[in-house]
Structure prediction request, 749 residues.
Amino acid sequence: MSLINIKINGKDIQVAAGTTVLQAAKKVGIEIPTLCHMNLHDLNIEHNPGGCRICVVEVAGRRNLAPACVTKVTEGMEVKTHTMRVLNARKTVLELILSDHPFECLTCAKNGTCDLQKLAQDLGVREIHYQGEQSSYKEDNSPSIIRDMDKCIMCRRCETMCNEVQTCGVLSGVNRGFDAVVAPAFEQDLIQSPCTFCGQCVAVCPTGALTERDYTNRVIRALADPTKTVIVQTAPAVRAALGEEFGLEPGTLVTGKMVAALRKIGFDKVYDTDFAADLTIMEEATELLGRLTKFLNGDKDVKLPLLTSCCPAWVNFLEYQFPELKDIPSTAKSPQQMFGAVAKTYIAEKLGVAREDLIVVSIMPCLAKKYEAQRPEFAVNGNPDVDFALSTRELAHLIKQSIGDLKDLEEEDYDKLMGQSTGAGVIFGNTGGVIEAACRTAYEFHTGKTLEKVDFKQLRGLEGVRTASVDIDGLELKLGIAHGLGNARKLLEMVKNGEADFHAIEIMACPGGCIGGGGQPLHHGDSSILKARAAALYRADEEMKLRKSHENPEIISLYKEFLGQPMSEKAHHLLHTEYFDKKKVIYIEK
Amino acid sequence: MSRIQIKLKEQDYKAIREICHSFNNDPEELINVLHKTQGHFGYLPAEVQEAVAQELNVPVAKVYGVVTFYSFFTMSPKGQFPISICMGTACYVRGAEKVLEEVKKELKINVGETTPDGKFSLSCLRCVGACGLAPVVMIGDKTFGRVAPEDVKKILAEF
Prediction:
């Protein structure tokens, strides 16, 4: 690649052709402020509309200021990154953006984590010199996501995530000029659109325009109610990210401190979704082997590949975009819902609490889990299996307002019955983790032999679509893995067209898997944070004594005492579900 | 879980499909398809946009984005006599806004709307190239120049 000579603030440097001024400046240690720009290069996600004009710089010989994020370097270019003209222009641009932004910072859900707020602080804006009309849109309250478009600054990052990365096609720029806004078709609410509630739009929104539906107060009310027994489950990916909200390094595992915090807050029992992940593997691996055996015995009608079904956003995606494939996913419920179903039967009985007096709270890295918890098929006589799903961010708020901090707490263990887990359960939070966990159990179920080497490293990584094979004692298991719904679409198109040669496919809706979920602490475009979280979960797996789901003693006793066998009638009733065709249909009137 | 239904009359659905087929159902031709579809229906209601989206295999949000971006496209049926009031600089300074207010008051509709009897619809535009006649109002294919607010009632009565 050819090198190009440029000068930044008088300093000569050489950079590769095609480099932007923004990237070049970084090389000489200058961080040019940006707002609409977003680059998660490890995940091939880039959003460069060059629209906000915050990153402008002075280029010698150029009349107007140049946006650094989209201006490529040219031979002999001389750039000045912080002249008075530049600093004034940036401030003016920001003041103009702020002139159409509600001044609700103190009560905004994004207070403290807002990119716009940080920029106003960094650029030293102390006064808005412009006054004019303020945009006003109706608020959109879905079970998962709140859209408050008065706070939208039209960076359009959400559109890139929704259309290009996730290929859901829900959000689009509509109207023009001052009335322009990002919205679903006909400016309807998200619940009327094919939104999967993956929350990736929320994960990248720089302001409070897109936030999660917050159920913290509902949980606080339940905790204060003496007639209720409130239990909680914590998803695998939460432990690897929660610490970030308390100033700990990304990738710090806070499992024991989180358990201690939840107990201090007042939850009657603290259980682990990792346990339910192990339970999922028991059912899913059995289902996979069942289908595989039929297939190998010449049954042509058997549905293969088996698709994993743990990710509720992915399930929504399938129901809206590929309903013709709805018989292929594993019928196993997600770990959250398996936990809920077992908690409101088995645990209720063990604790001697009536179903309606048992409140199940889940802590999830995910916003689609909120929607999933409210699906009517996951309720008995209107009483949901999972009452409230809080995101990792909401848990951080709950901890902060209840007990302040978790950093200095003594580590504690989960409660018995649904608190023990294996390394297979904890890697559910990473892309490739569910299929790896399934392989560990499928191997031993199928061969009856002990699997010595439990790490299937060929299933790991951040490549969007991966294929790998696993040798199960002579039987070659062909596997596909996709994370990000756009990547999932590629595999699903292959399945639909009969071009896929897989026995099983794992799909997670969010880039990186649950560690990059829409409910996690905001990464602010830093993909190294996602990598640190992924590494933390693999570390947690390695540190576990038990690393195969079927070796979990609490799982063994749950089957012995309550469920019988995997795929038994009772297991089928409590732990399995069905999928629905939700594609819009055109109804022809004669 | 019930699926969302989009209701369309058979002949309308057929017309949309034919228009899309004439552009080989190419998503790149979205604007041309919408242009022709509006030519057929007179406007682009939601269910028509849904059908176009399905035929071209593009998200309906994108179709709606295009329809709302270009002022040529409209989601409400135009009246028998579409009224266009010029808001170009010359007309504006000579009182076009007062004329607009008078029309709104007289017909009890806002810009972008159609009277309940379908007779008049109201829109604004920027310069018809007749600045010498400012302020200019067009109704159907007739042009009225130097319109004063007090003329509005009389002009409307002609239709």
In short: Chain A has three domains: 3-82, 96-212, 217-575. The longest strand of chain A covers residues 475-483. Residues 184 and 494 of chain A are 28 Å apart (CA to CA). The mean pLDDT of chain A is 95.
